[in-house]
Amino acid sequence: MTVRNQQEQTESEPLSVDKRLSLLSSRLRRYLLYTLSTYSTPVPLPEIADAVTTLEHGTPAEEYPDERLAIYTSLYHNHLPQLADAGVVRYEQSDDSVELGPNAGELVPLLELTITHDRPAENGGLREPDLESLS
Question: What is d(CA 44, CA 72) in angstroms, rounded to the nearest whole number?
Fold first, then answer.
């Protein structure tokens, strides 16, 4: 997956409303962003897959090994490239790590609207997302 050139082109352009809504239309992409908001350094994609699986099922990812693998694969092949192309995240394939990109802050207002719906009380187990860190 080569995203560097596309990232460099989109990082300076603001995201359209349609693009923002499209990027956040997937619960897995929102979960990925909530997870990244709790870290200040790049996060290994397997760790993100664990966190997303935990959010998806409300219990530790270890209880869902098949689903965790499916989520990792979906993040890697589908969701991560879309977010990287928009400059919302940066993916470093050499160490399989993800960090927030320069356009992440543009999604904060919409993420603030979705977080209550996406993180019901029973989906605990992860640190509370810090959406302000995306700005």
Answer: 11
